[in-house]
Specification:
This protein has 12 helices and 18 strands. It is α/β, with parallel strands linked by helices.
Length: 510
């Protein structure tokens, strides 16, 4: 039997202890991404909000509330791509597209480093639950990829085949959710890992669903027998709970990353039956109430499992509130999800991309604080890298900045030199923000048509409607009412040059 050298044994024990300590001190990360949740939908951002949001308000009291946070894009697919990669979606082919049905392939290129892949390399268990919507590949019975967002394409899917390009191919070790918008799509079926275990068997019957002004964004897609249109978010909640419980039971010392992407509060507003009629603001108010309850349940689960003290919890949204939602909630319930900003989902104006962003991290983020740093969802990746000690290669996270100094209250100045956002039409509708100045590199909203009957009441008069671009000073004109393009041409030209430089270099991170 070999003799153990005492100093070597001591050294090995010390290394092992250090490894265990590093594993337990790295925080768990839970990222809850709401859908179409507006800046004004939450009481902690809007005291005139008509729906109580006690769970999310609690996070604001126990953590940090960012007041100048932005989605990278004004619609879901490019925002989710940018969150997962730290790279603005307009930089990649098809980076402005929004997928439906069997649409694809994935916007994330093979080999591209993602947030979950980076964390997995750092020893994290990674799981995604809910809406994916970054594109994937279904195949027909002959093996041919479909990549078609039409309703007919869903009928061509061979459900015995593996689903390619989804979360488990981009760094997540587990996934349960949907290809696109859970209750708005041509395909109403759950993906478990890389398979659809229960395929759709019939077309959705709308007569079985609620009828109200917020229920009309529901395509007559193909429905799986285990897909509950009004209870989808409750299914997602149970899957996230199961992941947390199983992980803590089996590997309590191993850090985890849970990405929970809700259906709420994307139209149609199908709140679960337990929440219907429970808010003072109609069906969509009920849906906001359910979202808040889900955030509370996940928060309580972390506490029940004893891991909340070492968990970085983020709650945010992929873009601003939907047009139909804003119109009816304003008219019917005096609730404004876009308040106090101009615009809404799809628009380049602030209401399209200014989003809630709340962080709770006990012991590291001071409770009850606010932060006015300009931040973007792309910044989650660089921040997670800094927290976990991961190295970001030059060809990854090109538009991501480390927010850790802001979280710890140590930021001496602006973390971001500037902010890029893209409206509905992708690379043709870019904006840049530096300090108080915002330059929109196109006329109009870049997304919605304000000549329609639905949006005419929200149109603002344009003193110079034929200008090629827009320039606003958000410090003096947060409502973006006065285009200063002609008054300050030198600032417009400077920001245009900076925007083009960022476009040509392919990055905003140094």
């Amino acid at each position: 039997m070999a003799r153990v050298i005492p100093w070597a044994f001591t050294l090995l024990s010390l290394v092992s202890a250090c490894a265990r300590a590093a594993e337990t001190t790295r925080p768990n990360i839970v990222l809850i991404l709401a859908d179409d949740l507006g800046h004004g939908d939450l009481h902690c951002y809007n005291t005139e909000a008509r729906v109580p949001t006690p769970s999310i308000d609690r996070l604001a009291r126990e953590g940090m509330r960012f007041t100048d946070a932005h989605a990278p894009a004004t619609v879901c697919t490019p925002s989710r791509y940018s969150l997962m990669t730290g790279q603005m979606a307009f930089r990649v082919p098809r980076g402005g597209i929004v997928f439906t049905g069997a649409g694809g392939p994935s916007l994330i290129a093979p080999g591209r480093l993602t947030l979950p892949a980076m964390l997995s390399r750092q020893g994290y268990a990674t799981a995604a639950v809910g809406k994916w919507h970054v594109g994937l590949t279904f195949r027909d019975p002959s093996g041919k990829p479909i990549h078609n967002g039409s309703p007919e394409a869903v009928h061509a899917i061979d459900f015995t085949r593996r689903v390619e390009g989804g979360p488990v191919d981009h760094g997540f070790q587990q996934f349960f959710g949907t290809a696109c918008c859970p209750t708005t799509d041509w395909l109403y079926a759950f993906i478990d890992g890389d398979r659809i275990p229960t395929p759709p068997v019939k077309q959705l019957d709308h007569s079985t669903l609620p009828r109200h002004p917020y229920a009309n964004d529901c395509r007559p897609g193909q429905l799986a027998p285990d897909f509950p249109m009004e209870e989808v978010d409750l299914v997602f909640l149970e899957k996230s709970r199961a992941f947390l419980r199983e992980h803590v039971r089996k590997t309590p010392g191993k850090p985890f990353f849970l990405y929970h992407a809700t259906q709420a509060v994307h139209l149609p507003s199908f709140a679960a039956r337990a929440f219907q009629g429970k808010s003072p603001a109609g069906p969509h108010g009920d849906f906001i109430l359910e979202l808040d309850w889900i955030v509370g349940e996940l928060t309580h689960e972390l506490e029940r499992l004893g891991v909340a003290g070492n968990t970085l919890l983020i709650v945010t949204s992929d873009n601003g509130p939907e047009t139909t939602t804003v119109r009816h909630m304003r008219d019917d319930h005096r609730h404004d999800g876009a308040r106090p900003w101009r615009g809404m989902k799809r628009d380049a104006w602030e209401g399209g991309h200014r989003v809630p962003f709340l962080v709770r991290w006990p012991g590291r983020v001071q409770a009850g604080t606010t932060c006015d740093q300009v931040v973007c969802l792309t910044d989650v990746m660089a921040t997670a890298a800094a927290i976990t000690g991961a190295e970001l290669p030059h060809d990854a996270a090109e538009d991501s900045f480390n927010l850790l100094p802001a979280l710890e209250g140590k930021a001496a100045g602006s973390i971001r030199p500037y902010l890029l956002t893209q409206a509905f039409r992708g690379a043709r509708t870019l904006s840049i923000r530096r300090g108080e100045w915002k330059y929109i590199d196109h006329p109009g909203s870049g997304g919605n048509n304000y000549a329609t009957d639905e949006l005419k009441p929200f149109a603002l008069p344009e003193s110079e409607p034929n200008l090629p671009a827009q320039l606003y000073n958000l410090a003096h004109d947060p409502g973006e009412t006065t285009n200063l393009y002609l008054k300050h041409p030198e600032i417009a030209a400077e920001l245009k040059t900076l925007l083009e430089r960022s476009r040509s270099t392919g990055r905003s991170r140094p």
